Amino acid sequence: MSTLKIKNRLAKDKLMLWGICLFAALTAVPLLAILGEVLFRGYDQLSWSFFTEPTPTAYKAMKAIEAGQPIPGGIANGIIGTMIMLGMAVVFAVPTGILCGAYLAENPKNRFAQVVSYLTDLLQGTPSVIIGIITYIWVVVPMKGYSAIAGSVALFIMMLPLIIRSTEETLKILPASLKEAGLALGANKARVMLKVQLPAAFGGIFTGVLLAISRVIGETAPLMFTALGCSLIRFAIDKPISAVPLLIWEFFNDPNLQDLIWGASLFLLLFVLTLNLTAKYLAKKWNQ
Amino acid sequence: MEPVKPILEFKKTCVSYTKQTMAVKYVSAAIERNTITAIMGPSGCGKSTLLRAVNLMHNLYPNIHVGGEILLNGEDILTMEPIEVRRRVGMVFQRPAPFPTMSIYDNVLSGFALNGIRLSKAEKDATVERCLKSVALWDEVKDVLNKKGTFLSGGQQQRLCIARALAMKPDVLLMDEPTSALDPIATKHIEELLLELQKEVTILIVTHNMGQAMRISSKSMFMYLGELVEYGDTETMFSNPIDERTKAYLTGKMG
Amino acid sequence: MNDKIYKVILFIAALIMPIVCGGVVYALVTDAYDAFEHFGFFKFLTSSDWSYTEGAEQYGALPFITGTLMTTLLALVFCIPFSLPVALFVGEYFKGTKVAAVLSTVTDLLAGIPSIIYGLWGFYTLRPIIMALNISEQGSGVLTASLVLAIMIIPYAASLSAEFIKMVPNDLKEGAYSLGATRAEVVRKVIFPVAGSGIFSSYVLAIGRALGETMTVTMLIGNTNNIPNSITSTGNSMASIIANQFGEADDLRLSSLIAIGLILFLITAIINMVGKIMIKRARIS
To answer: Smallest CA–CA separation between B99 and chain C, in Å?
Structure first.
């Protein structure tokens, strides 16, 4: 083979290496750009009152802008709404998800379990906007109104498959000897699950729950049709309520409130990414 | 009489995985053309590592370093382009691994395809026939050349891998325990094949099977803890080993 | 608690999946029924009218199906040149190294960013760029939405492909190297063919993600109820028309929107199922 041809091939090889490095590095650009933009435009809005006061009315905001002052108020209504809905969703989704995941892990070959497993995939892949429609039909229509309950049902449905999967997978990778040792000591299956398997799987399940929270906390579309939004700080669960992503959507659509977009986005983004990194870190730590 | 110029020569060859420890320590040996040389030793003695160094396999793993020289026809391969060296030095691995996405026909020609060498249909047919015949696989597979190589038995797969290496007409064929994953009958086939093949290619074979070394090799190396302890005619080494360690190994008191 | 009660409790918990999923299908079908009955199933799919003038209401899903397919396919096209290098970087070239871990974290974080924030970034950063480059006048449209969508699906396609690239046996790679191949040649002629079905299936799942993506598309596609006639024109996807109009719709329009939701649900369900089955097969072989 001629040296020219070898040189040619080696050049191609190098080109491929550098191309891969270049394009791989380029994928970091959007992350940095998004983080940078949100940080840069949002950081000066973060203040104490931003977290303690509810959203101003458009009129108030307009007045402030006309007077050349920063828009008063904050996103407290959204933070509280998000916490209430998320809290309710977690309280129901975690036990249900763990039990259902345990069922899948205990009966891997069972026909019904396989169906459940398929449906879990199906629900996980269902677009969130459809979860919104469904919750609207199931909860908002019968209750004759938007409410925090409806919002939390939507979040519950979205979290459920994620928790089921992480529970199932964590339980499945536990050494079989663990369960057998428990059973050999004469404990029944429920005790072994409760006292041996679940504690051993705690790390994986906890990570799964964190990831599930970080996945749904930024969801907007399903909350638009269920929680609707509200400019007051509210604790009632049968009334419309706000949420941080809903506020961002509101600010995006209201020219008077646009200055609040970035503070709210920064808060949401930092929260989500911190949850994400924490989950990843914990998963790594517990795996060792 | 002038000594025969060796085809392959190790000169103080060292291989290290970490800075502190060497897997192969200052091995020097000359391999003659058209011989079969067996490299023996207990597991972990560095025999595979030495063999893989001849094919510059260590270049794939950044933490492995090779020192000294390895001369192929008098040229130090450590300073040459790996892709050029590997074309002239074939290698057969422990587990037969034909490319699962290619047919038997394409597997034999995979070296050309991988190197981007275009052959005419006639050249291809001739190469496939020649190589499969020289590994005694032709009669068994000539009607199923378009089937995937992975459908063959283990022994057939390994012969296919040898054919694949031979297609590139290498000067030296390296074999890393090529029969350890095969049954005795397939092993016997391969051994017979190697005795035939030494007419066209110089073979360096790592084996943990002393019987195999005795049956096929004319020269033997014995390695222990990375050192080349003894190197000489196979018959002499087996009947009259010089070093105590060689003796211990050959009599089964070691490894 | 004895084993029997324990089993029953787990079984009851597992029943929630069939109940929820059955409920989803039931609710979508019953509430979409009006629209299908009024316009006819095929007419609804193929009509491109969307007008809510009282008395002359006409609803058809074609513009939105087209919009969804266009944004999704375009996003896939934009995604591949980045996700494939990332997968090779993490799964082959720098497998197991610190840089690969950093890149994995970067893509994980990309996957974690809420879609409404992607939408904001697309609207306030990308859209002005598109306008400045004179690609389209209003900046919004199929192209803008697809670009951001592409970034959003890179992590999914890349991490799954990397998994399959990692699984290519070392034996095969060393075999190819021993025949004198360069790394690029090994990638092209050994890794891609062997990991091909797995890589393909990861893109199928990425498509599944892109199809239903709502907020980003809603904020960027321009929200016009026409069939987009080029990649720079505006339109609506199935998800974005729902997000835009669900709150204000009632009666026949609401039913039509739910019908669009049902179609979207079915398409994503099929794509996801195909993807999962392909992945299972690729893992076994």
So the answer is: 6
The 10s digit of each residue's pLDDT in A145-203 is 999 999 999 999 999 999 999 999 999 999 888 888 888 888 888 889 988 999 999 99
ipTM (interface predicted TM): 0.95
Q: Using a CB-CB distance cutoff of 8 angstroms, which residues of chain B are in contact with residue C179?
A: 86-87, 90, 110-111, 114-115, 164-165, 168
Give the distance, in angstroms, between the CA of residue B219 and the centroid of all CA atoms in the same chain: 14
Contact: A10, B81; criterion CB under 8 Å: yes
Of B87, B97, B113, nearest to C175 by CB-CB distance is: B97
d(Cα C112, Cα A83) in Å, to the nearest integer? Answer: 19
Are A1 and B117 an interchain contact pair (Cβ–Cβ within 8 Å)? yes
Q: In whole angstroms, give the CA distance from residue B209 to residue B211.
A: 5
Interatomic CA distance for residues A128 and A221, integer angstroms: 7
CA distance, residue C134 to nearest chain A CA (Å) = 22
Q: What is the dihedral of CA A67, A71, A72, A76, to 10 degrees?
A: 170
Burial grade of A115 (CB within 10 A; 0-12, 13-18, 19 or more)? middle
Closest among B94, B57, B221 to B66, alpha carbons compared: B57
Least Cα distance to B167 among B139, B130, B138 occurs for: B130
Give me the half-sphere count of Cα atoms (radius 13 Å) on the Cβ side of residue C264: 38
Q: Does B54 lie at the interface with C, CB-CB under 8 angstroms?
A: no
How far is residue C197's CA from residue C202's CA, in Å, rounded to a whole number? Answer: 9
A9/B87 Cβ within 8 A: no
B87:A10 CB<8 A: no
Helix (H) / strand (E) element for C59: namely strand C58-59
Residue A51 contacts residue A78 (beta carbons within 8 Å): no
Residue C250 CA: distances (Å) to CA of C95, C160, C245, C253, C263: 54, 41, 10, 6, 19
Task: Identify the residue among A1, A3, A8 best suited for mutation to test binding to B, counting B beta carbons within 10 A and taking the highest.
Answer: A1
A42-63: pLDDT as tens digits:
998 888 999 999 998 888 888 8
Taking the CA of residue A20 and the nearest CA in chain B, the distance in Å comes to: 18
Torsion sign (Cα): B121, B123, B126, B130: negative
